[in-house]
Amino acid sequence: MAKEKKLVEEITSMDVDFAQWYTDVVKKAELTDYTSVKGCMVIKPAGYAIWENIQKELDRRFKETGVENVYLPMLIPESLLQKEKDHVEGFAPEVAWVTYGGLEPLQERMCIRPTSETLFCDFYSKEIQSYRDLPKVYNQWCSVMRWEKTTRPFLRSREFLWQEGHTAHATAEEAEARTQQMLNVYADFCEEVLAMPVIRGRKTDKEKFAGAEATYTIEALMHDGKALQSGTSHNFGDGFAKAFGIQYTAKDNTLQYVHQTSWGMTTRLIGAIIMVHGDNSGLVLPPRIAPTQVMVIPIAQHKEGVLDKAYELKSALLDAGFKVKVDDSDKSPGWKFSEQEMKGIPVRIEIGPKDIEANQAVIVRRDTREKIVVALPELAEKVGEVLTTMQSDMLERARKHRDSHTYDATTYEEFVKTINEKPGFVRAMWCGDQACEDKIKEDTTATSRCMPFKQDHIADTCVCCGKPAKALVYWGKAY
Amino acid sequence: MAKEKKLVEEITSMDVDFAQWYTDVVKKAELTDYTSVKGCMVIKPAGYAIWENIQKELDRRFKETGVENVYLPMLIPESLLQKEKDHVEGFAPEVAWVTYGGLEPLQERMCIRPTSETLFCDFYSKEIQSYRDLPKVYNQWCSVMRWEKTTRPFLRSREFLWQEGHTAHATAEEAEARTQQMLNVYADFCEEVLAMPVIRGRKTDKEKFAGAEATYTIEALMHDGKALQSGTSHNFGDGFAKAFGIQYTAKDNTLQYVHQTSWGMTTRLIGAIIMVHGDNSGLVLPPRIAPTQVMVIPIAQHKEGVLDKAYELKSALLDAGFKVKVDDSDKSPGWKFSEQEMKGIPVRIEIGPKDIEANQAVIVRRDTREKIVVALPELAEKVGEVLTTMQSDMLERARKHRDSHTYDATTYEEFVKTINEKPGFVRAMWCGDQACEDKIKEDTTATSRCMPFKQDHIADTCVCCGKPAKALVYWGKAY
């Protein structure tokens, strides 16, 4: 058994060193690999298949709200990037610049898109003339590049994959409604598919997107008590429209500026899945996002009839609509169990000669390790039940973890002590002044995560300066 | 009617100026738009939806052969690009170079991938140790960049979307089998889904991919008689493996080099669809690739019950599994017909008060303009029949066009005369000497498209030099 345990033993315990645990899981679950390109990663089949499932689910939800997909260039001429002042200040320091095309220096250098507001604005300024051309509700799936100094797989890398939606509307109200609609699409997706509860709220001015009037965010709590911004949706008002001259002729024949939004989710979500659900045996994938939901593991597979029965179960479960594989490699069952657990496959089915004789199999849940002996005729039905239960249990467990790691503070002393000693969110009132955010960050490294849509009034005064409070804020140390 | 015909009148006739016709269709069917980024295009919703369907169909076919998707970085360090001599010579003159990351000059410049052989080799050199790690059959969907001087939407642009498969195998035989297998996947896809017949064959050494031992290709004939290379599959032998040190320990404990392949298809296919099937009214999409298969167009829609009936038909056809829209805009029916034709939607259904009274509708096929009056209870069944027939008719029509524009030549005089005067393929024997390819290109601008798998022996001697013939070659002027 020593050799069989090797896979698991090689992972650092999450209680000893969470960052190292994360790195170990990413590697051992074969999600990514390092490359010769500093700060960039290879996303391996097991990792990319999760991204494909995220894409499929999100894309379907987008299209149900009328989104259409497009593709814009990956390069942005410098003059275009500079058209909106706040935006260029936010992004220019961290872009990669192309200065040569073939053997010739470029007349104007171009950056690899860090995000595509400027390109969409340039596009919309040509496409939109009349109110009949509105709204435009476009999205693209692509990769973007930001020249980060320190990187970690999925969480922060120089290149990452994402979707970026960019919309243009006739009125401010319509833009605001779309901004919130997409945030809710994100939040519902996280909760229903990733089993990851999120706080929906608005960013403070300090934390909002470069060039936005308002940024909405969903914030999730990782197992180590740190926050992860998991998706954002921005309302630009008519700021970009004015900078890029995006105007339309309204029904009353007046010339109006459009109102715009953008919203994005990234491969960072895979990092969130790992850090919300993983354990000391590796990854734990929610059934609805798992590329393989069931691994059938034959016991004593050299014995007559065992492998055949394993294939028969696979085939029956495939027919029932599950994503199933058989591990028929020449490894030992114990080794296969460890691998299946490391890779986070939600359910394994053990089937050996004794099971076959008794016309049964053993279902083992990845999250609780609960073993369920089931008669073969009921296997598919039971697997369905187990996957459904596991999905909702995972959400419930994550919600409990989040709620039990969320604290209220009404004095600054209490606030600092809590945020430094208890991993998690701290809820506290804020006056609306950036100086308090700056002080809190300097004193504790924590940042304002969001002003939740669901506002409670837990005190009358700002936790930091004591002036009258304007909003409840979730504070936390964040990835 | 004058206004209603405007859309169509604005297209140049394909018989007058095919290149202008192509540009007009791309614009009027709203497939792409120009951008501020020279040589790059915006792919608009109508164009991108075709690409999504191509992706879905190809990806499914790939996965059925065991392909797994991954994602590698978009940047290649110069030293990595230079590792394989032929490859760097082929690509270095046409790549875009990143020289700055943020405000800092890079220590080593990196190019935006023109193709990713070098990155996959770097990855495989770490991933592959033992015969147990083989084969690797990976693919990625991404964009690549080649700094072309003259560009045209879909056919040649600086950035384009594609898939690139990269595989590593234990033996030369297995690599060769995979190379041909993927070419056949491509060819079957083109014929079954795009209704586009292709010639399957091998490229001459002059025309093969930089660094490949053998390149296989599928060649299609456009309506104007020019050839379009529509997909390629390369066998690299162990050339890259030796340059990058990709070795594995075989079962007999010896150290061996892997054998590799790569294969790709691009957004160029959308250009092929336009130029194989389009007509003077615009685009004609094969039903199996059309994002919208049926457009329901109400006649006299202001009359009571007409719009309701149109929505009812849409809903019934959606339930039957078709991709359907209703054009309920305030344009005239004639204008709507022109738009539906321009966009290549395979079938339109006209439904007006008289039809409703007679409990019927009119189906109009986009390709033949055949009108079919059908009783409403049989509508879904009939639409299915029409789409199926149209799909196979389109393939047959394209095949007839191709075959009737394919000529044999046995003397050089005949060859030159045919290729200059008759648009299409010319089949002629070749000695195997590149000098003859060079002379033919210089004399006629035609190139060797491929040595077809199906070899006929139409003469004993090379059509150019008169030496003994080695192979039948398809020659043509090409995009």
Automatic annotation (TrEMBL), chains A, B:
Quaternary assembly: Homodimer.
Name of the featured protein: Proline--tRNA ligase
The family this protein is said to belong to: Belongs to the class-II aminoacyl-tRNA synthetase family. ProS type 3 subfamily.
GO cellular component, one term: aminoacyl-tRNA synthetase multienzyme complex
Keywords noted in UniProt: Aminoacyl-tRNA synthetase, ATP-binding, Cytoplasm, Ligase, Nucleotide-binding, Protein biosynthesis
Gene: proS
Reactions accelerated catalytically: tRNA(Pro) + L-proline + ATP = L-prolyl-tRNA(Pro) + AMP + diphosphate
Entry remark concerning the domains of this protein: Consists of three domains: the N-terminal catalytic domain, the anticodon-binding domain and the C-terminal extension.
Function field: Catalyzes the attachment of proline to tRNA(Pro) in a two-step reaction: proline is first activated by ATP to form Pro-AMP and then transferred to the acceptor end of tRNA(Pro).
